[in-house]
Inverse folding.
């Protein structure tokens, strides 16, 4: 079952200061981070296409820069996923829960 | 006992178990929310496993292990795009979709638009993307049975396709989202266990010396150290600049496509809240990431232990590298019986993998047909829940039957490119429409419709005139040549077209609904008014 709210409720919340803060906190984290990991990934693909000598440089044994770069993509993906959950739990969820609870309890 | 017999027995056990689950789930499927979204009652971990089960197709398990085994590093490059893509879903899409949508992708796109044109476009795109993906999987299943079970007759392949198709129809028609999700969870656990087991055996064989494994793989490959570097498969030096641009184009479609794939998007509706959607994507990222790291060891392990000649002798594309490695590793460590058992296990897991993925695709496309096209376009929103679910079940049957027929027709053609095409359409048409819907106040009906159709049509046309369809020895139609587009992957052209069309469509039309934007924005970020889990 889903509670229907009048559209004026949403416009009022949207105009409110706390929602604006929630929106700012969400966007100012998610948007730059998206740009960052896309650039980081594209750098990896571009190097794989155009800087093969560099990517083939041996680091130790049979382990080269290309493998290191690939593993780092895994590491950064896991890291960003973890950082996002921390950010969301600390900065986003409290405001979102509060705004939702206020309206649902009415 | 031969490995074929053992594989068949294991597979029959899997089918029996999943059918049992499906009928149990079917008895608990009463409302539309049960059928489309599994009652929204799965936990973050369960849905995370199902995300893995839905996403790790045979193409990514056998295909990527095979590419690594034959072309080395480039297979790894491919898998990284599949993984990083989940960050787009996590940061921008999963939670907001969960809060603002109901059953399908179109629920979010049509939220503040004129519903009929937008739902029509989203429904068409969903069905096209899902059927492309389905065809690649089902034709692959036909080829795989020949390789793994020794069935090489034409009739054997056709019967395999029919059997896979019938099972997927049964899972979806009777089990709905609940049954399908459980099939995917079981499959994910089996696949991860199987891959981890073989990985441990391979690493053990090399005394857990990764560098030693890489060295042996490079030496056995006949390519030397180049085997451990990019460039043997994608954007080879022989292909010149076009090849390298093609590599970037593929990378773009992979990284941006996932968050626009309808069967991925509907997974976010199966959990009670946006927080659970977030958790499930995080579990998904963990599972998929670990899986691709295992695949890296499997691929290089196959190159080192099975060897190029033995792999190519079985299948030129290397799709049997992982099962062959399972057999070899088992033999080396436990003797011949061990090899037979491991090969049988991995072969059975491969079929389980295909079944779980095709069921997810059939569910996504039939849900969209029933909820978007039937209930909202034909019936203008006047269908009852009961009617909708009946239509969803019928369309699952019809889509399944059509896929079986198309797959039989296409089984001798090289249709592996359809997976990359599905990602390209999702990235070019669906993703711009979703992102604009969630984040751009001014976005409107004309913009949504333009983005979806432009992205869809541009991707399909460019691929139709590319070397994957005609004009090359590996084309779908190798004996004809009508190609003029030099790249195999359209993404680098079609993705900007989709985003641009969405922008132009929007600014050229005055219509837009500020009140509804307030609703979707507040709802997506706070969950106020979001669909609740059903109470049982």
């Amino acid at each position: 079952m889903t509670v229907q709210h009048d559209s004026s409720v949403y416009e009022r919340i949207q105009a409110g200061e706390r929602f604006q803060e929630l929106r700012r906190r969400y966007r100012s984290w998610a948007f730059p981070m998206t740009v960052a990991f896309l650039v980081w990934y594209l750098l990896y693909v571009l190097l794989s296409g155009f800087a093969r000598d560099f990517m083939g440089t041996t680091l130790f044994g049979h382990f080269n820069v290309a493998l290191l770069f690939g593993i780092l993509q895994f590491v950064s993906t896991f890291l960003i996923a973890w950082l996002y959950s921390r950010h969301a739990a600390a900065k986003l969820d409290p405001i979102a829960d509060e705004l939702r609870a206020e309206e649902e309890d009415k | 006992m031969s490995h074929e017999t053992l594989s068949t027995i294991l597979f029959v056990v899997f089918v029996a178990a999943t059918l049992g689950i499906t009928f149990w789930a079917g008895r608990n499927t009463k409302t539309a929310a049960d059928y489309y979204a599994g009652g929204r009652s799965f936990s973050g971990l369960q849905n995370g496993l199902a995300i893995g089960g839905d996403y790790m197709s045979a193409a990514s398990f056998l295909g990527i292990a095979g590419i690594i085994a034959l072309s080395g590093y480039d297979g790894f490059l491919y898998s990284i795009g599949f993984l990083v893509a989940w960050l787009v879903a996590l940061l921008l899409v999963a939670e907001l979709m969960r809060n603002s949508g109901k059953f399908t992708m179109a629920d979010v796109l049509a939220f503040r638009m004129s519903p009929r044109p937008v739902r029509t476009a989203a429904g068409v795109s969903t069905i096209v993307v899902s059927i492309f993906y389905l065809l690649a999987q089902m034709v692959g299943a036909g080829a795989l049975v020949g390789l793994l079970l020794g069935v090489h007759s034409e009739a054997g392949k056709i019967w395999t396709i029919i059997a896979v198709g019938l099972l997927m129809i049964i899972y979806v028609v009777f089990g709905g989202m609940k049954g399908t999700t459980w099939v995917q969870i079981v499959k994910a656990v089996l696949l991860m266990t199987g891959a981890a087991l073989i990985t441990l055996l391979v690493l053990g064989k090399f005394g857990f010396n990764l560098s030693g494994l890489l060295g042996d793989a490079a030496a056995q490959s006949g390519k030397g150290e180049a085997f451990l570097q990019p460039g043997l498969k994608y954007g080879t030096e022989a292909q010149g600049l076009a090849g390298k641009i093609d590599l970037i184009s593929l990378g773009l479609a992979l990284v941006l496509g996932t968050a626009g794939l309808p069967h991925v998007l509907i997974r976010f509706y199966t959990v009670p809240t946006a927080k659970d959607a977030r958790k499930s994507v995080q579990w998904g990222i963990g599972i998929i990431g670990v899986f691709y790291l295992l695949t890296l060891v499997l691929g290089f392990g196959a190159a080192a232990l099975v060897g190029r000649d033995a792999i190519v002798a079985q299948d030129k594309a290397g799709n049997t590298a992982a099962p062959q490695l399972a057999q070899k590793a088992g033999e080396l460590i436990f003797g011949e019986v061990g090899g037979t058992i491991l090969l049988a296990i991995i072969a059975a897991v491969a079929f389980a993998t295909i079944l779980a993925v095709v069921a997810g695709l059939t569910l996504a496309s039939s849900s969209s047909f029933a909820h978007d096209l039937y209930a909202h376009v034909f019936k203008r929103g006047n269908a009852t829940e009961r009617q909708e679910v009946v239509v969803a079940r019928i369309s699952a049957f019809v889509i399944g039957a059509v896929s079986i027929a198309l797959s039989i027709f296409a089984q001798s053609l090289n249709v592996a490119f359809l997976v990359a095409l599905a990602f390209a359409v999702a990235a070019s048409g669906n993703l711009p429409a979703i992102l604009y819907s969630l984040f751009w106040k001014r976005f409107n009906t004309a913009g949504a419709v333009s983005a979806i159709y432009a992205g869809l049509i541009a991707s399909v046309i460019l691929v139709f005139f590319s070397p994957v369809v005609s004009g090359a020895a590996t084309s779908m139609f190798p004996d004809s040549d009508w190609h003029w587009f030099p790249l195999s992957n359209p993404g680098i052209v079609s993705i900007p077209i989709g985003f641009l069309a969405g922008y132009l469509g929007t600014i050229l039309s005055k219509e837009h609904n500020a009140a509804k934007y307030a609703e979707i924005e507040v709802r997506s970020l706070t969950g106020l008014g979001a669909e609740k889990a059903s109470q049982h």
User: Anything to note?
Assistant: The beta strands of chain A are 58-60, 63-64.
